[in-house]
Amino acid sequence: MRGGKREGSGRPGKYQGLKTKAMKLPAIFEDQLKEYAEKLSIEHAIKTVCTLNSKPNTRIYLSNLRSKLDIDREKLNSILLDLSDRGILSLYMLENPLEVTAGIEAGSFQARGETFHIVYLLK
Q1: Is 23 left (phi over 0), alpha (psi -120 to 50) or beta?
Q2: Residue 82 contacts residue 105 (beta carbons within 8 Å)
Q3: How far apart (Å, rounded) are the C-alpha atoms in residues 38 and 41?
Q4: Angle, in degrees to the nearest 10, between helices 30-51 and 73-85
Q5: What are the helix and strand counts (H, E) for the chain?
Q6: Range of the domain at 73
Q7: 6-36 burial by CB neighbour count: b if 16+ within 10 A, else e?
Q8: Are 60 and 94 in contact (CB under 8 A)?
Q9: Total structural domains in the chain?
Q10: Quick check: is 11 in a domain?
Q11: Which among 83, 90, 10, 78 is positioned nearest to 44, based on CA atoms?
Q12: CATH no. for residue 110?
């Protein structure tokens, strides 16, 4: 038998396991569209990890989020800040220094004069 499609065949996609679709779009927009699709894919992955096995408004350590996502550190930081600016999630620091382990510190990042250790998904 020839032709058709088989589930799981072909190259793995780079969009965090999301189903993809071929589309005809102007070639001039290719780079911007790829960048936007990657950003949306990462946002979806963040939301999925933040809601996996947790109740709404449960804190997730950034170190745990990073360990579950294979995403460039700076790119993830940038998208987390963007999601925070859009009111989709909140970033917080641990105020008690005794709570900050080496692993938690390794997952944190600094921006806007603060060090962030925790993410809360709001929407």
Answers
A1: beta
A2: no
A3: 5
A4: 80
A5: 4, 5
A6: 27-121
A7: eeeeeeeeeebeeeeeeeeeeeeeeeeeeee
A8: no
A9: 1
A10: no
A11: 83
A12: 1.10.10
Amino acid at 36: Y
Whether residue 66 contacts residue 76, with contact meaning beta carbons closer than 8 Å, is answered with: yes
Task: Give the rounded distance of the alpha carbon of 80 from its chain centre.
Answer: 7
Render pLDDT for 36-73 as a digit per residue (tens, 0 to 9).
Answer: 888 888 888 888 877 776 666 678 899 988 998 888 89
Token pair 């058709």: residue: 4
Q: How far is CA 111 from the centre of its chain?
A: 17
User: What tokens were used for 55?
Assistant: 């109740």
% helix / strand / coil in the chain, to the nearest 5?
45, 15, 45
pTM here is 0.74
Distance CA 43, CA 36 (A): 11
Distance from C-alpha of 52 to C-alpha of 17, rounded to nearest angstrom: 15
Higher-confidence residue of 67 and 10: namely 67
- Token pair, residue 80, equals 């987390």
